[in-house]
């Protein structure tokens, strides 16, 4: 599944790149890199708000799993929302 998704994403990027100048393409790429940065920071913040250790949740996959577990637990979701207010 991962290899197929990777191939499709690269194919889409190639199609997009062929229709625009390289100076325009960098704007899209920089936006995606910034979005990835924000996403990673959000996951780290979820780990901290859950009073867990970043050493224990040291990968994006582990952090995402914790995030999904917290979202599925209604009480935890309410605690996260209350903490951010």
Automatic annotation (TrEMBL):
Listed SUPFAM superfamilies: S-adenosyl-L-methionine-dependent methyltransferases
This protein's UniProt keywords: Restriction system
GO biological process terms, semicolon-separated: DNA restriction-modification system
Designated name of the protein: N6 adenine-specific DNA methyltransferase N-terminal domain-containing protein
Record-stated family: Belongs to the N(4)/N(6)-methyltransferase family.
Keyword Membrane on entry: no
Origin: domain of life: Bacteria
InterPro entries: D12N6_MeTrfase_N, SAM-dependent_MTases_sf, T1MK-like_N_sf
Pfam families, sorted: HsdM_N (PF12161)
The UniProt record lists the keyword Hydrolase: no
Domain annotation N6 adenine-specific DNA methyltransferase N-terminal: ranges: 5-68
